[in-house]
Design goal:
The chain has 74 residues and is α+β, with helices and mostly antiparallel strands. The protein has helices at 22-29, 60-66, and strands at residues 7-14, 35-36, 43-46, 51-58, 72-73. A hairpin with a 4-residue loop joins β3 (43-46) and β4 (51-58).
Length: 74
């Protein structure tokens, strides 16, 4: 998909009790069409709640697919 169709997002992940690293995030969002910025994240926002953010790029379709995953918000 052309980059002009993709937007940059900060993506919030709520994964209480899980170890969240980029490998985990890649596996979680794999197949959605979301492209992750490997240089940013996951950044702990509230580790006690399991809340982290990553930065990525997504088309509207990829965003809609990823938002169906429990705990993923754009």
């Amino acid at each position: 998909m052309p980059d002009a169709v993709k937007s940059r997002y900060v993506i919030q992940l709520e994964r209480p009790g899980e170890r969240v690293d980029m490998e985990f995030v890649r596996a979680l969002l794999g197949g959605t069409g979301v492209e992750l910025d490997a240089g940013y994240g996951p950044v702990p926002v509230n580790p006690s709640l399991g809340r982290f953010v990553v930065r990525g790029f997504a088309s509207p379709e990829a965003r809609a697919v990823a938002e169906r995953i429990p705990g993923v918000r754009f």
